[in-house]
Amino acid sequence: MSVVLDALAQGYGTTTVIDNLTVTLRPGITALLGPNGAGKTTLLRTLATVMPPRNGVIRIDDIAVDGERSARRVRDRIGYLPQDFGFDPQMTAADFVTYAAWMRGVPSRQWRRAVDEALEMVDLTDRRKSKMRSLSGGMRRRAGIAWAIVGRPRLVLLDEPTVGLDPRQRLQFRKIISGLGDTVVVLSTHLIDDVGAVCDRVIVMHGGAARFDGTVAELEALDREELPGHSPLERAYMHLLPEGEQEL
Ligand SMILES: Nc1ncnc2c1ncn2[C@@H]1O[C@H](COP(=O)(O)OP(=O)(O)OP(=O)(O)O)[C@@H](O)[C@H]1O
């Protein structure tokens, strides 16, 4: 799986959110960091083929995704968990994940196995028959993660997947995504601990551009002791913000 963004521009109406972004995403876990409004969700939605690029090119497995026709060719390779995902509260957890398998073009004879595997990965096997409305917030988010990974799509896009998870569930989440193997995983987060623990690569977005693109160790090397923050990664992140935003 390869995902190439070449001079990508994206926005809403007259607002430009992403401007001239060029990156190649490879198998492994990439974190998108950046302040509120930096464009992380917009980038994930664009990668998920929800919005065609305003300018520039997205190439998924060498297919240029520039409209509905080309998007249809790649959608079954993509698992996308939006920040606020909707569901029918009457659906069981298994139905919810089966719906994703169907949407992703998993053949019906494989649904049962694929759904069982996804629910097992997020530790919801014993809740497979529970209605979505009866699950706790953290369980729903884990069902959402199962939604994104069922059928093993090669590109997995997760928008703030650990919001609402308790500490143990966050550790479980890290285990799940570390076990996805040969998959391009892109997640947005504000939790720098998660980045340090599981991500291979970090892209820090600000002002429509990638202000940093490198490994966690390379980001950590930008640590400046004089900046606010409780860890080298937090201080390195602060260092990447414009000067006016570096104080608290
Ligand atoms: N549907 C929309 N219509 C108009 N503007 C939008 C829309 N969605 C987002 N925006 C604007 O685009 C910019 C980027 O928003 P986006 O949600 O991508 O940021 P983000 O980095 O995901 O933020 P957060 O950390 O708060 O989730 C913001 O200025 C936002 O107000």
UniProtKB/TrEMBL annotation:
The source's domain of life comes to Bacteria
Question: Which SMART domains is this protein grouped with?
Answer: AAA
Does the record's keyword annotation contain Nucleotide-binding?
yes
An annotated Gene Ontology molecular function: ATP binding
Q: Give the family, as the similarity comment puts it.
A: Belongs to the ABC transporter superfamily.
Domain ABC transporter as annotated: residue spans? 3-232
InterPro entries, alphabetized: AAA+_ATPase, ABC_transporter-like_ATP-bd, P-loop_NTPase
What is this protein called in UniProt?
ATP-binding cassette domain-containing protein
